[in-house]
Amino acid sequence: MSLSPARQHRLRVQAEQAAREGGSVSPRIGL
């Protein structure tokens, strides 16, 4: 895994925001 902590954090924040906005709008995250 060549994902930097910053990138992982960003993905996590994005996933959380997406979940807050519309629930399962972006299933590509795979929560």
Number of strands: 0
Distance between the termini: 18 Å
Tally of individual helices: 1
In the predicted model, the low-confidence regions spanning at least 5 consecutive residues are none
The string of secondary-structure elements, in order, is H
Mean pLDDT: 76
Shape: elongated
* Major beta-sheet overview: none
Radius of gyration in whole Å, from Cα?
10 Å
Helix proportion of residues, in percent? 55-70%
Structural class: mainly alpha
Name the beta content range.
under 5%
Protein name: Small terminase subunit
Region (Disordered): 1-31
Can you describe this structure?
This protein is mainly α and 31 residues long. Helices cover 58% and strands 0% of the residues. It is elongated and about 30 Å long. The chain starts with a helix and ends in a 9-residue tail after the last helix.
Provide keyphrases for this structure.
31 residues, mainly alpha
Outline of the structure:
With 31 residues, the chain is mainly α. Helices cover 58% and strands 0% of the residues. The model has no long low-confidence stretch (mean pLDDT 76).
